[in-house]
What we know:
By secondary structure, this protein is an alpha/beta fold. Helices cover 41% and strands 14% of the residues. The chain contains eleven helices and eight strands. It has helices at 17-28, 50-61, 76-90, 113-143, 158-163, 168-188, 205-208, 213-216, 228-235, 275-280, 282-285, and strands at 8-11, 32-36, 66-69, 95-98, 150-155, 193-200, 246-250, 253-257. Strand 2 (32-36), helix 2 (50-61) and strand 3 (66-69) form a beta-alpha-beta unit. Helix 4 runs parallel beside helix 6 (168-188). The longest helix has 31 residues, at 113-143. The protein binds nicotinamide-adenine-dinucleotide. Residues 12-13, 15-19, 36-40, 42, 44, 51, 72-74, 99-102, 122, 126, 155, 157, 199-202, 204-207 line the site of nicotinamide-adenine-dinucleotide. Nicotinamide-adenine-dinucleotide binds next to helix 1, helix 4, strand 6 and helix 7.
Amino acid sequence: MGMLDGKVAIVTGAGRGLGRAHALLLAQQGARVVVNDLGTGMGGDGRDATAAQEVVDEIVAAGGEAVANTDDVASWDGAGRLVGHALDAFGGLDVLVNNAGVLRDSMAFNMTEEDWDTVVRVHLKGHFAPCHHAVRHWRDRAKAGGPVSGRIINTASESGLFGQAGQANYAAAKAGIVAMTLVLAREAKKYGVTANVICPRALTRMTGSVPGAADFMSGPEWDPAQVAPMVGFLASDAAADVSGQVFVVWGTRVHLLQGWSLVATLDRGEGRWTPEELAARKDELFATRPPKVPPMGFGQ
Ligand SMILES: NC(=O)c1ccc[n+]([C@@H]2O[C@H](COP(=O)([O-])OP(=O)(O)OC[C@H]3O[C@@H](n4cnc5c(N)ncnc54)[C@H](O)[C@@H]3O)[C@@H](O)[C@H]2O)c1
């Protein structure tokens, strides 16, 4: 008996790295899986249909059920075909794991328009487009009286929470994914759908490309398979009451994060502030937190 027996799952960007680990675990837990991957290079260039098929072959060899899909998740129609593929192949959809991504790092002053557009398109639109089609399906099913236990698991990054230098495009898209997921969690609640975010850490070709990362990310705790069990839990009925949450997941740890929170308030009481008055009361506003760029990360 698996935790996901009878469920149908889509995992995007599942031909390698974290997506592959998620797809293998979901299948191990009994889900039938649509393994989506365009088979791009790390920056989004090129196409390779074998990436998705190889993971399907692995799942089938282990006794599971899976089909390969090579649609571009950032294409509105492609994302629609992806959701349709799950319905046609397995007769339903329960779990959508959005994971596909590309990386094109550079400092803001060097970033090209194409670097910006490509990264924002694949991550932000590439998360929203499958969500749109999946939520539409779940809403139709709920309205028709059918049982729905939809699960959306989106992939952001600590870069989007804390702002990693060199990643204006990637961090903006990832922060957008967090905001979008909070909206989805509110909108889809009444249809029996949850939406959560994981910010993973693992050694993949993406992190392996960051200078120095592979040096400290060596060893079994950086295996993408360390992250997949949290995706399995969030996909399951056991997580029916978990929605609108953001987790950092890596190694042996699952961190629950909390978003923006109020730090201090200045209230003039009546009338309108002048810039001079605000300058004069600056120390009051920043009494408990200095007005410096906050540190990257939240500690361990
Ligand atoms: N590895 C980490 O530590 C880490 C940290 C934070 C966030 N992430 C996020 O995790 C996700 C997976 O990253 P990874 O490290 O496994 O990278 P990866 O490069 O190994 O895998 C990404 C996969 O997405 C696929 N893909 C790219 N564009 C696509 C598209 N338009 N449609 C369908 N598939 C597409 C690629 O072909 C590739 O197989 C990404 O969203 C990434 O931003 C990873």
